[in-house]
Write the structure tokens for this entry.
Amino acid sequence: MVSNRAEALVARPPAIAAAHLRAEADPYHPARNPRGYLNLGIAENRLVWDLLAPRLRAELSPEDVRYGPLHGSTALRDVTADLLTGVWRTKVDPDHLVVVSGASAALDIIVSVLCDPGDSIVLAAPYYGALETLLTARSGARIVAAPLSSTDGFVLDARALERAVDASTRAIVLTSPCNPTGNVHAAAALRQVLAVAERHDLDVIADEIYANSAFGGDFVSVLDPRVRGGSRARLHVIWGFAKDFGLSGLKVGVLHTSDPSTLAAARALAYFAPVSTETQALLTGLLDERAWVRRFLATNRTLLADSYRHAAATLDSYAIPYLPARAGFSVWMDLRAWVREGGELLLANEILDRARVNLTPGAAFGCREPGWFRLCHTTAPELVAEGVRRIAVVLG
């Protein structure tokens, strides 16, 4: 007989997963399966494989198939620290990195380290939908949403976060750049969030998995000296290879924390989420040529910008409104005008069942205003065009 915690997890799977699996089981093909599903609901970068393929070669040594440090090999942490030093604009100590099986695992670990059951975590909403499972399922913590306003484009507002803080609050969690809106947070807004954390003695967890995927504005990390300055806020940052490098299936995430007790506890929990030594060797080889990494990331940003502009132009051609994005893989579509009796879920099901397009509704991201949907565009442009055409037919 399973535990109560396991039953709760089975009863409440991530909302994004079910529709994704349904779409992937019957995919669209213009000739072989023209009535198949178009999966525009999953944030996966399918634009960069041609760039990656020649570099994904691992020459294994005997050490690469033996037990290694469960929080990541020295070699992988070294090259990753070098990469992140450039991204975060601050010297990264490889000993402050914990490498685990995906950014999801890293988020689960840091919240399990920081929170006791019943503690609350404040999130700016809308937020990445899977956080509801990742931050609460094992830790026993609970999420308190701090709704941002659509009037000003869901920009990060430290005052909204502070209003959500109470005596049970243990941490503030940010996605930066923001998934699903594509907003790139300003340094001033991030400084204000750190000030809130200091006033209330809270930790700040920043999921910066899209750090190298900003194409319409400079990304600024919470660890950047322009943000952190002299702040005494306790900062824990998540990054991974799934988004910036398009390697979601390899499941490799990184937690950065410099607090000794937090670091020790995170390393202990890494025992339950290690990355295979073969995969670590593969990624070490990928990152060890700095010039190639710089070229790859620059090209990726160009591809993302082109992909976004194509998706935006296609939506414009059908007069479907959206929030302009500056980062990430998605467009935050505004379908509020088409929500009628039955609400957002009815519209989402119509798009899935009639148009056979997988979009993710705003409710899955904690959005309080019915009618916002995330459309992921980082796939072949003709698939995005066909998906938007079908959506437009349903919208009439």
Remarks:
- The chain is about 40% helix and 15% strand.
